[in-house]
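hiii, so i know i said id send this last week but things got crazy w the move. better late than never?? heres the sequnce for the chain we talked about at the cafe, plus the structure i predicted for it. fair warning i was half asleep when i ran it
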Amino acid sequence: MNTVITTPKNRPDPRDVSKDDSMLKQKEMMARHFDRITSAPERGEKVCATFVPGNLNELIMCFDFANNLPEVNAIQNGLRKKSGQFVMEAEKLGHSEDVCTYVKSDIGMMAKGNIAPNGEKFPDPDVLLLSYTGCFTFLKWFELLREQYQCETILLHTPYEGDGKITDNMRQYMVKQLKEEVIPKLERVSGVKFDIDRLRENLRRSAKAEDDLVYVLQTAKKRPSPIDAYFGGIYYIGPIFGAYRGTDEAIDYYATLRQEIDARMAAGLGPVTPEGAMGEEKYRLVTEGPPNYTSFRDFWKMFYDEGAVVVASSYTKVGGVYDFGFRHDPDRPLETLAEYCLGVYTNRSLPQRVDMLVDYINEYEADGLLINSIKSCNSFSAGQLLMMREVEKRTGKPAAFIESDLVDPRYFSAANIKNRLESYFQMVDQKKAGGALKGAAA
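okay and structure toks below
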């Protein structure tokens, strides 16, 4: 439980808000993650660079690689207010303003010495592993990294789930690539022989942690929701979407988190914010699209100051859609890796995404949909206006559209976003009032 020392205005001072055990645990995990990567050459350990959506961490672990994720590095630089200078450095090198700012942050960071959050230099990767999952930018990003590092590059091609289902042909196509291309190359680069039983154990640990993550996310169906599934959800998904899925540490983290959320529910408390426990829950929202990381706390504050909590979000499914039933299956090790890649959010068709958002609004009893359209992220922003209209039509709930960017501070207009949010909350209030009048008249 949080203990909070309040200011004279009865408002928590963020410096005086004690951290939950899960938050402290995750902070320690991230520190170890970066220390492991930056010290890998000293220990004779090799490094694999890969991406979050569809990442094969359980397989990577079988070859003793340290797993470096460029997106995570870009997010960390955004949160630490460093990404802006890296983005501008990449643009000086000739990269367009319209290119994904994750990419430009990464390229700019390399140009500025490739320094990790722990102050040490990132080592060059020994292998680049891309399990392509619907984002074409990833392909171009890896071309740039391959040109920079001149190392082994592996592509696991994932068929697009355009018809809304995974077929046997799609699954077997990917299993064939794993057997004939991915695993042999990882063996050659690492010098470690593949052990399928080791993979099964990693997958078993993943499934256990995934169970607890889904439990935590679905507690948002309660009133008040004990979590924020967008801003708070960013922290919850960190270990399982990155280098800790398949580890005992992930199991321990999610067990701890689950206990904390249970305690919040029992006490009737809302989400934890950077300023302590949120006050009265006035609005329940579903969000589509990534957040802005360069002004993350200011962005979140615009919501909790209004009593708005996000009860479900598409972004927290970008590294795995577990709440619709998928779990890594140790009894079908290669097939389950294929299904994981096939099912992530960025590999799903627009009708599937609309269905997901509609289901969330109905199941979580949300008041409406809010889309944060990211200027430089085509994987999310393409089709969002169409999705918004379809969700409004099918749910009868109001939707709104705001715009920012991932890690480029130039595209976060606090005043503009705040005005749009205030207008949207007024719209929600009017909708609620209209529903109440109809109910009274009936």
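btw Residues 74 and 102 are 5 Å apart (CA to CA). thought thatd interest u
miss u guys!!
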